């Protein structure tokens, strides 16, 4: 094992007693071992802290537990990174899990291709990856990411220096703050995604199992806020800015209609 910790796994959590142990088990099962775990408890009032303490009494892993009053996931992740010692940051949510070879595959590709940013796609079912699976890697540009979000937070490994240079997650945003960061990153470095195999498992739908419509409107407002920033900074031409506003508005309408029809 290398002496220098290479990856800091940042996990924000809030009242996660039903899922945190499952998430931590997927971390402990990683074939790549040169990491630390940085857990930011965002004001939990349930048994989350106790379960975390119980877990690390059984599993001898390098970890930090930091408690803060409830301030939201963006501030929690930024705090986690500021307390991280690894050269790279891997984000994981407290209700998601990783394939056991996720970090091994990503770190191998990062070193071979000298990458600052590498994401992984997700699925909702059990993992079916094996060592003989082909790895499909794809680069995404700023313009492509404006049209469609490609990176999920639990799949991303980002160089800590890059994250800090970008100023971290925008804490003024409640929704779409992750895609806002990926867009900012794409302006200064190449962003790559492991399209296959899928190395992240989400245990709830991307827009949430409850409050789906509210989340969609929140995401919509977050996207508008982000677009306005890029337009004001000169990264978007006015015509493109107007087109994208119309485009994401049409996407919202389609999602609302689809959600409505799915409930009837």
Brief descriptors of the model:
9 helices, eight-stranded mixed β-sheet, 11 strands, Spore Coat Polysaccharide Biosynthesis Protein SpsA, Chain A, alpha/beta, three-stranded mixed β-sheet, globular, 19% strand, 2 domains, 264 residues
Protein architecture, described:
Residues 8-140 form the Glycosyltransferase 2-like domain. This is Glycosyltransferase family 2 protein. InterPro entries: Glyco_trans_2-like, Glycosyltransf_2, Nucleotide-diphossugar_trans. Keywords: Transferase. It holds the Pfam family Glycos_transf_2. Mean pLDDT is 92; it is low at 208-213. The chain has an eight-stranded mixed β-sheet. Strands 5-11-7 form a three-stranded mixed β-sheet. Strand 1 (7-13), helix 1 (20-28) and strand 2 (35-41) form a beta-alpha-beta unit. The radius of gyration is 18 Å and the shape is globular. The chain has helices at 20-28, 48-58, 73-82, 102-113, 142-147, 160-166, 177-186, 212-232, 238-262; strands at residues 7-13, 35-41, 63-67, 88-91, 96-98, 117-120, 122-123, 136-140, 157-159, 191-196, 200-202. It has two domains: 7-202, Spore Coat Polysaccharide Biosynthesis Protein SpsA, Chain A (Alpha-Beta Complex); 212-262. The protein is 42% helix and 19% strand. The protein has nine helices and eleven strands. By secondary structure, it is α/β, with parallel strands linked by helices.
């Amino acid at each position: 094992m290398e002496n220098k910790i290479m990856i800091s796994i940042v996990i924000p959590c809030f009242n996660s007693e039903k899922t945190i142990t499952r998430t931590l088990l997927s971390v402990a099962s990683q074939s790549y071992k040169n990491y630390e775990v940085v857990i930011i408890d965002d004001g939990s009032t349930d048994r989350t802290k106790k379960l975390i303490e119980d877990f690390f009494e059984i599993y001898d892993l390098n970890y930090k537990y930091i408690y803060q009053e409830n301030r939201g996931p963006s501030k929690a992740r930024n705090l986690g990174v500021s307390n991280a010692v690894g050269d790279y940051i891997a984000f994981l949510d407290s209700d998601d899990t990783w394939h056991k070879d996720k970090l091994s595959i990503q770190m191998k590709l990062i070193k071979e291709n000298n990458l600052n940013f590498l994401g992984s796609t997700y699925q909702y079912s059990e993992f079916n990856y094996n060592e003989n699976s082909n790895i499909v890697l794809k680069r995404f540009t700023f313009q492509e990411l404006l049209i469609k979000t490609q990176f999920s937070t639990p799949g991303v490994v980002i160089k800590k220096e890059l994250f800090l240079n970008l100023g971290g997650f925008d804490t003024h945003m409640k929704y779409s703050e992750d895609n806002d960061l990926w867009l900012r990153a794409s302006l200064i470095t190449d962003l790559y995604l492991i399209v296959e195999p899928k190395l992240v498992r989400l245990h709830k739908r991307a827009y949430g199992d409850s409050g789906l419509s509210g989340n969609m409107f929140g995401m919509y407002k977050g996207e508008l806020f982000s677009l306005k920033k890029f337009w004001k900074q000169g990264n978007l031409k006015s015509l493109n800015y107007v087109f994208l506003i119309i485009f994401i508005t049409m996407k919202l309408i389609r999602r609302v209609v689809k959600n409505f029809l799915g409930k009837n």
